[in-house]
Structures are given as C-alpha cells and as structure tokens.
Amino acid sequence: MSSNGLGDPVETSVSDEPHPKGRVDVNLSVVDNRTRLAELALDPAVARIRQEMADQSAAFETAPAGLVVAWAVERFGPKLALSCSFQEAVLIDIAVAVDPGIEIVFLDTGSHFAETLEYVESIRARYDLNLTVTSPVDGADGHPCGTSQCCEFRKVRPLRRALSGKDAWVTGLKRSDAATRRHAPIVSYDENWGMVKINPLATWTHQDLVGYAVDHGIPQHPLRSAGYHSIGCAPTTRPVGEGEDLRAGRWADSDKVECGLHL
To answer: Is 233 in the active site?
Structure first.
C-alpha cells in the first residue's frame, strides 16, 4: 500500500514475469480521490502553485519543447513522469535527450493494435526507456472497448494510479489536435488531476511532428502508412479518408472526442 501524493491509499502489484530492461508492468486498483481533489482546490498552497504555473506557461509560449522539458525535469526531478500513447515518439526523443531516465508511462488498454504494441517495444529498445506499462483496473471487463466507461477503467484510473506520488506529468497534447484542446496551456495546475500538467508540444502542428520525426530519423508507427493518423484502440480506430480531419478515425461512430485524460 502506498500513497498517490494526495493522501489516498493506492494498492499496487508488480508482475513477476520477466520483461525487457526498463519495463515494469503495474496492475492498479481503483481508488476514488475526487473528495480529496476538491479539498486541494481550496488549499492556499495550491493557489500559489496554480499561479506559478500560469506565469510559467505564459513565459514558455514561444519556448522550444526541449527547454520546457528541461525546466520540468529541474523543477520536479523524480516526481515527474511522461505519459505516451506511442502513436509516434517525438516527445520521447525530446525528453530522453534531456533526461535519459525519465519515467515513461504507457497505458495498455488490452485493446491496442498489435502494431502499436510492437512499436512500443521498438521504441523502448531504441532509447532503453524507463518504461512503466499499466493494465486496466478491476471492473474493466464490464466495460468493453467502445462502451461509455471503457476509457475510465482502461486509461483514466490506471494513469491516476501510475502517477501516484508524482507532482507533475508531461503529455503530448497539442492545441491543433481538436477544438477541445485549442486553448491548452503549456504548463498548468490541473484541477482534475490535482497535479501540474506540462504540454511541451502544445503549440506544435501535425506537420511540425512529421518534420521533426523525419529530421531526427525517428521510426514511424507501422499503421501511419495505412492511413491511420490518430491511433487509439483497435475497435474504435479506423483509417482517415482524404480530406478528413486527422482525428476523424477515432470513435468515428459516436460523438466522443476525448478519452477523459485531458478534460
């Protein structure tokens, strides 16, 4: 039993199965911390960190992504983690150049394409990543991929547990991804997560990502060449047609646009 940094107990278990160097599989139980987060919102210390991060975000509006990551590593040290969906590896390339040992978190939903899992392993080997892989929490079987609560049990709650004890997390969120992300700050205190959230690529476009990957020789996800531009779980992801929005292939048969990590 450990704490998630918000005073909530967290039960974790680490698999005894052998894995490649640097990879740890974590199975995590569900503990609801909404009440504690509400309390934190009224804490004067939280108000101070909220303002500090808002000021820092404004200062970073035109800063290179590497500088933002370097600040985050210096500011938060081992209390920092980076979550990655492994649709591509640009942010990983930038982050490990700053801190080769930064913890990378991958959310294994149990429904990923085989190509995604292969890509995870190829990138892990390329950078010798300090990789943590989560699993769906208890109760996920009752919410299959594509149902209304699937992401809650397969992404949101596992990530919340994986970030236990952390003060900040780095994401690959971009303003150009969707209208819901159009005003995403580069740095903020995330009220929903009760911690600092850092988006070094917030100002980047899809073309910026592509250009960086080409310039730095980063392997692309195997499904990119098949027309998949936003890659999530296999049952809810399709190739994007000519002229469609790059995220049109996600949850195409519903009005869903976010999984819940970035609300």
So the answer is: no
C-alpha distances in Å from residue 86, one per residue of 183, 192, 215, 232, 247: 23, 23, 19, 9, 15
d(CA 203, CA 73): 20
Higher pLDDT, 34 or 78: 78
Which ranges constitute the DSSP H helices of 60-113? 65-76, 90-98
Selected catalytic residue, list 84, 150, 233, 259: 259
Residue 257: strand, helix, or coil: coil
For 229: left if phi > 0, alpha if psi spans -120 to 50, otherwise beta; the answer is alpha
Tell me what pLDDT residue 16 has: 37
**The two three-digit tokens of residue 17, written as one number:** 């199965």
Residue type, 19: H
Q: pTM for the complete prediction?
A: 0.79
What are 131-173's pLDDT values in tens digits?
999 999 999 889 888 787 888 899 999 999 999 999 999 999 9
The answer to whether the Cα torsion of 38, 39, 44, 46 is positive or negative is negative
**At the top level of CATH, which class does the domain 2-236 belong to?**
alpha beta
